[in-house]
């Protein structure tokens, strides 16, 4: 019997896909079928404003921004982990939220870090660290024994790495992997997120069409592109996303109301 | 659907597959049915519901006023409009009623002659259903948050109860066995439906522990949300199941997986044998409950569904895929508990608005030809509600 066994779930078409004319025109509608995370990441990278940081920072994308582009969160997580294991993607724990992870392509990271280190005394140590890190390691943090035994770094070398910004102190004897000069990024990001959420909250009825929000003039608080922030607040579920006949509506989510 | 029927008829498929497909179809079409009502007896919020496993006919409910009600869910009248009547009540006038809020009620797993209720008046009572008097009463030192009896136990009849002021779950029958290990109050306890000696507890110290009652020396293991990957957390948060209080636990029907919900707005699915986080991402499952949350998993469908009370609606998620199927809206206030009826694929949910709502699968409407033959025969089913029949248009058009 060669009959292919179909899943019962497929027969019942669990997810209804309603096509929204307004969204499909702009081209970034949700991807059906096989989710291509890499192309979504590349798209999100284009939304990142490089000039803001004088080109010293590699393009950073947040993991939950991917959730706003793809339906299946578990599949997104799985693919991101695969890319990390292959050494193409690096994941960082940002300080402000235990669930917010930043993703950077490994080549970009390496290029920017070495560019930042050029001419400084710590260049050699940083290169050695990157060489150990990028092909195989997919950790978010390192503790002392690992650094000393596995990676064979000395204490003074670890201090140099912290000084150069590649490691940040977590607590005594352990360090987070980090992006150098990312403090400014986090500051602008949090301010911008708060400002965009404020825009949604202040709209009439606490809701606004996504296309209208994209077209609004941004205040000086919002340094990134509007679309970058919109993907962030949708993916982190800080606003409720409702499909209507005029497009996607973003409604402010109050903690108690459901 | 026809393909499933044909496959069953010709022997290509297992009979179970057709049953599962039909159950899944029914669960996917759950809606609030205006034909099905549950008697409104409670004057205050409803904290807990339990449907007995033998017949699936009787339902127990416990409320914040200490009242316990038993309903008959079976529809013996021939009409589609049916109210589940309350058969008997342990009301405020009864001598043995609980003084404060009843937190958990559960039928005795093997027959309906007995049920156990636990409440904030620091007692757990074992009731005789016939006389509605407590046959046995256990006193505790603190408010009892939750109790559970093993649904498969044959060799023991332990009731596991957890209460505040103590950070250990007690399994009590005649012998009081204490299991130590948690550092905060325990909000929820569940026996495994697969093994009669495995118990899971969830507590405010963000940990979920799995115990073997035969050993009683320490927990078997603690569930770790990062699967041992210490790199992802700050060092205080190592080995925790959630980033906040864990307030709900539910085993799947086969006992192989365990679900836990926490106040960090997340729900996690664990492999109950190894304690591994399966990393299914359900997204933000809003959870603000200060005490235990009672949620449930469907039985007999493929794929299984999780019904979680989220604020004033019930969210339905696919168990292994993590996607939100639908939100069942209908309650006026917070929903506290929900219970799935496996034989009819119905969901009963109770909440602070003192209502128990029944979510019934919407049946396919009969086709137009059937309507005509029915009306010719003068069939018993009225296809049109008499209120909507128009009495003013004439037939001579």
TrEMBL record, chain A:
* InterPro entries per the UniProt record, alphabetical: STK19-like (IPR018865)
Q: List this protein's GO terms for biological process.
A: positive regulation of Ras protein signal transduction
So what family is this one in? Belongs to the STK19 family.
The protein depicted here goes by the name Serine/threonine-protein kinase 19-like
Which species does this protein come from?
Answer: Sinocyclocheilus anshuiensis
Gene name linked to the record = stk19
From TrEMBL, chain B:
Q: Name one GO biological process term.
A: proteasome-mediated ubiquitin-dependent protein catabolic process
Q: Which Pfam families match?
A: WD40 (PF00400)
- List localization entries: Chromosome; Nucleus matrix
Copy the pathway line from the protein's UniProt record: Protein modification; protein ubiquitination
Major place of localization? nucleus
Q: Where is this region: Disordered?
A: 368-397
Signal peptide residues on this chain, from the entry's feature table: none
Q: Which GO terms describe its cellular component?
A: chromosome; Cul4A-RING E3 ubiquitin ligase complex; nuclear matrix; nucleotide-excision repair complex
* Segments crossing the lipid bilayer: none
Q: Which keywords has UniProt assigned to this entry?
A: Chromosome, DNA damage, DNA repair, Nucleus, Phosphoprotein, Repeat, Ubl conjugation pathway, WD repeat
Which segments carry the WD repeats?
95-137, 179-214, 239-280, 328-359
Tell me the domain of life: Eukaryota
Query: What function is annotated for this protein?
Result: Substrate-recognition component of the CSA complex, a DCX (DDB1-CUL4-X-box) E3 ubiquitin-protein ligase complex, involved in transcription-coupled nucleotide excision repair (TC-NER), a process during which RNA polymerase II-blocking lesions are rapidly removed from the transcribed strand of active genes. Following recruitment to lesion-stalled RNA polymerase II (Pol II), the CSA complex mediates ubiquitination of Pol II subunit POLR2A/RPB1 at 'Lys-1268', a critical TC-NER checkpoint, governing RNA Pol II stability and initiating DNA damage excision by TFIIH recruitment.
What is annotated about its quaternary structure and interactions?
Answer: Part of the CSA complex (also named DCX(ERCC8) complex), a DCX E3 ubiquitin-protein ligase complex containing ERCC8, RBX1, DDB1 and CUL4A; the CSA complex interacts with RNA polymerase II; upon UV irradiation it interacts with the COP9 signalosome and preferentially with the hyperphosphorylated form of RNA polymerase II. Interacts with ERCC6/CSB (via CIM motif); promoting recruitment to lesion-stalled RNA polymerase II (Pol II). Interacts with KIAA1530/UVSSA. Interacts with a subunit of RNA polymerase II TFIIH.
This protein's name: DNA excision repair protein ERCC-8
């Amino acid at each position: 019997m060669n009959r292919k066994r179909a899943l019962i779930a497929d027969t019942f078409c669990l997810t209804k896909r309603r096509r929204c004319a307004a969204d499909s025109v702009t081209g970034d509608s949700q991807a059906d079928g096989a989710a291509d995370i890499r192309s979504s990441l590349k798209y999100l990278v284009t939304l990142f404003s490089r000039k803001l940081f004088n080109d010293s920072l590699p393009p950073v994308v947040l993991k939950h921004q991917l959730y706003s582009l793809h339906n299946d969160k578990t599949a997104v997580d799985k693919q991101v982990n695969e890319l990390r294991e292959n050494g193409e993607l690096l994941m960082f724990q940002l300080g402000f939220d235990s669930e917010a992870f930043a993703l950077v392509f490994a080549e970009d990271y390496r290029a920017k870090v070495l560019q930042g280190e050029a001419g400084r005394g710590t260049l050699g140590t940083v290169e050695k660290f990157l060489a150990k890190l990028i092909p195989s390691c997919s950790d978010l943090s390192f503790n002392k024994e690992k650094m000393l035994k596995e990676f064979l770094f000395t204490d003074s070398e670890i201090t140099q790495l912290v000084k150069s910004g590649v490691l940040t102190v977590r607590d005594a004897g352990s360090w987070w992997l980090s992006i150098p000069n990312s403090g400014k990024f986090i500051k602008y990001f949090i301010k911008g997120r708060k400002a965009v959420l404020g825009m949604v909250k202040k709209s009439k009825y606490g809701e606004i069409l996504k296309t209208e929000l994209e077209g609004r003039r941004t205040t000086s608080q919002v340094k990134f592109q509007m679309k970058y922030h919109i993907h962030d607040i949708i993916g982190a579920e800080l606003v409720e996303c409702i499909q209507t006949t005029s497009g996607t509506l973003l409604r402010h989510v109050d903690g108690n109301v459901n | 659907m026809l393909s499933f029927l044909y496959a069953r008829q010709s022997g290509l498929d297992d009979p179970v597959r057709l049953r599962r497909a039909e159950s899944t179809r029914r669960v996917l079409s759950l809606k609030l049915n205006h034909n099905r009502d549950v008697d409104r007896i409670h004057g205050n919020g409803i904290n807990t519901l339990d449907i007995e496993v033998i017949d699936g006919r009787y339902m127990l409910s416990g409320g914040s006023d200490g009242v316990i009600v038993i309903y008959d869910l079976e529809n013996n009248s021939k009409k589609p409009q049916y109210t589940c009547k309350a058969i008997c009540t342990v009301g405020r006038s009864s001598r043995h009623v609980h003084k404060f809020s009843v937190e958990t009620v559960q039928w005795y797993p093997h027959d309906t002659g007995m049920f156990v209720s636990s409440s904030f008046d620091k007692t757990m009572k074992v009731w005789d259903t016939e006389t509605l008097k407590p046959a046995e009463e256990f006193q505790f030192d603190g408010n009892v948050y939750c109790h559970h009896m093993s649904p498969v136990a044959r060799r023991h009849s332990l009731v596991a109860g957890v209460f505040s002021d103590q950070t250990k779950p007690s399994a009590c029958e005649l012998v009081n066995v204490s299991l130590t290990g948690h550092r905060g109050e325990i909000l929820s306890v569940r026996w495994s439906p697969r093994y009669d000696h495995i118990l899971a507890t969830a507590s405010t110290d963000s940990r979920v522990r799995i115990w073997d009652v035969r050993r009683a020396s320490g927990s078997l293991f603690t569930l770790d949300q990062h699967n041992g990957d210490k790199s992802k957390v700050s060092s205080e948060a190592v080995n925790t199941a959630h980033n906040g209080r864990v307030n709900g636990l539910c085993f799947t029907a086969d006992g192989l997986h365990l679900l836990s919900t926490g106040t960090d707005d997340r729900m996690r699915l664990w492999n109950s044998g190894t304690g591994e986080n399966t990393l299914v991402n359900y997204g933000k499952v809003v959870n603000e409950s200060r005490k235990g949350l009672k949620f449930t998993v469907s039985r007999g469908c493929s794929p299984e569904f999780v019904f979680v009370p989220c604020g004033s609606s019930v969210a339905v998620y696919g168990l292994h895929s993590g996607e939100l199927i639908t939100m069942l809206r209908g309650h006026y206030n917070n929903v506290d508990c929900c219970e799935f009826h496996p034989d009819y694929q119905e969901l009963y949910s109770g909440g602070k608005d003192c209502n128990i709502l029944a979510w019934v699968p919407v049946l396919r409407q009969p086709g137009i030809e059937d309507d005509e033959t029915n009306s010719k025969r003068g069939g018993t089913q009225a296809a049109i509600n008499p209120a909507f029949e128009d009495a003013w248009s004439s037939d001579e058009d």
